[in-house]
Design brief:
This protein is α/β, with parallel strands linked by helices. Helices cover about 30% and strands about 30% of the residues. The longest helix is centred in the C-terminal third of the chain and has 17 residues.
Length: about 210
C-alpha cells in the first residue's frame, strides 16, 4: 500500500514509514547538490526554513519561459556525494526527508535515527518522467552564486512516487538487498567463494547481524 506524504513533513508522519514502503509525495521540496550541502554544513545561512522540509539531491534542467520557470528534467543525483555534509544539515536544519538515489552512509543513517528523518529513493534514469511530477517552480536561491544545476530550487511536487530506503529506526533497504545477495551468493558459490567475492560483512537494517563463515 502506498503511503501519502504532504508538506509539511512532520516527525509523526516520517516515523510511520519503514524501509521498503512505497510513498507518494506532494508539496514543496528543495533541490540541493554539493555546493549547497557544503555551504549549509559549514554554517551558511539557509534562505528558507528547512524544518519539516525535503531536500532533493537533484540538479534539475530548468528553462525560463514567458510565464516563468519550467522543469524539463528532474532526475536524482547520486546521494553518497553528500555524505560528508548530510548529517550536519539534518541536525542543524530539521530536514525530515532526503530524496535521491543509491542510498547514503552510516553517518546519515545515524542522523536519520537521532533526529527523525527518512531517505527516499527516486527512480534513476527517468529525469523527464520525474519532471512531470513537478507542477511549478516556486522560487530559486543561489542561482547567481552556484549556477543553475547547483542552485536551490523550490519546487511544487505532486504524485512523486518514491521508496523508503532508510528510515528513522536504523533500517537500510540497500543493506538488506546486499545482505540477501550475499546469502544467495553463498548458496550458489559456497561460503568461501562468497566471502572472497564480497566486501566485508554488514549489518542488515538493524534487525540481524551478518557473519559469513
Amino acid at each position: 500500500m502506498t503511503k501519502n506524504l504532504k508538506y509539511p513533513f512532520t516527525l509523526e508522519a516520517v516515523k510511520e514509514l519503514r524501509a521498503g514502503d512505497s510513498v507518494r509525495l506532494a508539496g514543496s521540496i528543495y533541490t540541493g547538490r554539493d555546493r549547497l550541502h557544503k555551504f549549509l554544513a559549514e554554517g551558511g545561512e539557509s534562505p528558507v526554513d528547512l524544518k519539516d522540509g525535503a531536500l532533493y539531491h537533484c540538479g534539475p534542467v530548468v528553462v525560463e519561459e514567458e510565464d516563468g520557470w519550467r522543469v524539463k528534467a528532474a532526475g536524482p543525483t547520486t546521494s553518497i556525494r553528500e555524505e560528508p555534509y548530510m548529517a550536519q544539515v539534518i541536525a542543524d536544519h530539521g530536514v525530515r526527508i532526503i530524496i535521491g538515489k543509491g542510498g547514503m552512509g552510516k553517518k546519515t543513517l545515524d542522523a536519520c535515527s537521532q533526529y527523525g528523518c527518512v531517505y527516499l529513493q527516486a527512480v534513476g534514469g527517468a529525469a523527464a518522467l520525474l519532471a512531470r511530477c513537478i507542477k511549478k517552480v516556486e522560487d530559486v536561491y543561489f542561482l547567481d552564486e552556484f549556477g543553475s544545476a547547483e542552485a536551490m530550487w523550490k519546487l511544487e511536487a505532486d504524485a512523486l512516487d518514491l521508496v523508503v530506503g532508510m528510515d528513522t529506526y536504523g533500517c537500510n533497504l540497500y543493506q538488506e538487498v546486499r545482505l540477501a545477495s550475499l546469502k544467495k551468493m553463498e548458496e550458489v558459490l559456497g561460503p568461501r567463494s562468497a566471502r572472497r567475492s564480497a566486501a566485508p560483512p554488514i549489518v542488515g537494517c538493524g534487525k540481524w547481524d551478518v557473519e559469513l563463515n
